[in-house]
Fold this protein.
Amino acid sequence: MRIFSGIQPTGQLHIGNYLGATKQWVELQKNQECIFSIVDLHSLTIPYDPINFQKKIMETAIAHLAIGIEPEKSLLFVQSQVKEHTELTWLLNTICPVGELQRMTQYKEKSRQFKKNINAGLLNYPILMAADILLYQTDIVPIGKDQKQHLELTKMLAKKFNQKFGETFKIPKTQIPKIGAKIMALNNPKKKMSKSIPQSCLFLFDEPKTIRKKIMSAVTDTGKTIKYDLKRKPGISNLLTIYSLFSEKPVKELEKKFKGKGYAEFKKQLAELLIVKLEPFQRKRKELVAREVYIKEILNQGAKKAQTIARTTLQQVKQKMGLL
């Protein structure tokens, strides 16, 4: 089975990114053919700093290698280094109804957020995402819940192309984690954890004292009972989810463990668990930061191998469309 997934170089990874997506990547690479891309072209659709952009890309590569992506098992590359992504995007543009793009929830949200920067790229974002996936004849795409709508569009475009021009693309399947697909903000458990609001999230490479401070100040709920109840107790439910995923213990077991204990004791133990679990990532990251040439070589080799696959698909597409 071939797996494809991508992540934007927009800042540090937080535990929501890890639990919702990249943790799956590390597991999948053990038994599947995995292709992981730093999707820098997607990042151009919202305001960004071009001066520090390459630094962000390198930081993102280092972060993913630190959490366990192995270049011997997986391809890791930068999206813009494989030109076939943009070429297939244009070709898919010609079969995608504008109405499908305008109804995308993320387009509506980003348009409200960046009112002075509503660009065509923001509207066409899902088509680029579809090209990313379809180029590699992907079987499975591991994603968070917020990308489900985009994957449905990808499937629709693949089916439409196959019907119009002949069988060309595999129809990818979506893989969403049963638990942890959407980790909520520490300061507001009714909103998704977001790196754009530092106080809302816990970054993978936060120092131990920062981890303790953020967890101890995380919003909980009225009462003292440590019980999973998403409607009545969203704060403690979110923290229980985090504890469960990092400890690999079911929530029911944690509820028994902390029966009769207060939020303070629960948070203290959660903070210590996170410090222990994140320490190997932090240690590996420190080693990789000093090896820039090595990181660049991994990305270059990944791009060359990815392009070999992408070129084959694009040639088939262009032949079917009468361009060759």
